[in-house]
Amino acid sequence: MAQGDDDRTDTRGARGNPALTSRAAILAVVVCAIALSLAYPVREYVAQRRQIAELKQKERVARQQVEELTLRKQRLGEESYIKREATRRLHYCEPGARCYVVLDGGGDDGQRPRRDGRTERPPWYETLWRSVEAADKAR
C-alpha cells in the first residue's frame, strides 16, 4: 500500500505543479496589468504634487514682494522719507541750507571710489551731462 500511495502522490504532485504554475502566470499577468494601468495616473499625481509645491513657493515669494512693496508705499507717503531720499539720491538741497559737493579730482571714467575700495556709478544726471559735454567737444 505504501507503494501505491507513493505513486498516487507523485501523479498528483506532477499534476499540481502545472496548475499552480498556470495560476501563478495568470496572477502575474493580472498584477502586471494593474501595475501598468496605475503607472500613468501615479506619475501624473507625482508631477502635479511637484507643480503644486513649486506654485506654493512662487506664491510665498510673491506675497513677500507684496509685503515689501506695501512697506515701501507706506514709507513713500511720509514726507521725511521723501526728503531724505531726495537729499541722498538727487543731492537735493533745501532752500536756505548750505550744501557742498566735494570733487576729488580723480579720473573721469564715470566711476566713483567708495570707502570700501569698490567703485560706484555716478547718478544718471551726471552721466547724462558728461555725455552732452563729450558730444559738444566733438564738434
Describe this structure in words.
This protein is an all-alpha fold. The chain has 3 helices and 2 strands. The chain has helices spanning 2-76, 79-90, 124-137, and strands at residues 112-113, 119-120. It has a two-stranded antiparallel sheet. Strand 1 and strand 2 form a beta hairpin. The protein starts with a helix and ends with a helix.
How many helix segments? 3
Point out poorly predicted stretches: none
- The helix-strand sequence is HHEEH
Q: Let me know the average pLDDT.
A: 80
* Structure class: mainly alpha
Going across the biggest sheet, name each strand in turn.
1-2
Q: How much β-strand is present in the residues? A: under 5%
Work out the number of β strands: 2
Main β-sheet description: 2 strands, antiparallel
Query: What is the distance, rounded to the nearest whole angstrom, between the alpha carbons of the first and last residues?
Result: 128 Å
| Percent helix | over 70%
Shape: elongated
Radius of gyration: 41 Å
Task: Name the features.
139 residues, mainly alpha, two-stranded antiparallel sheet, 3 helices
Detail the topology: elements first, then pairings:
Layout: H1 2-76, H2 79-90, E1 112-113, E2 119-120, H3 124-137
Antiparallel strand pairs: 1-2
Question: What is this entry, summarized?
Answer:
The protein has 139 residues and is mainly α. The protein has helices spanning 2-76, 79-90, 124-137, and strands at residues 112-113, 119-120.
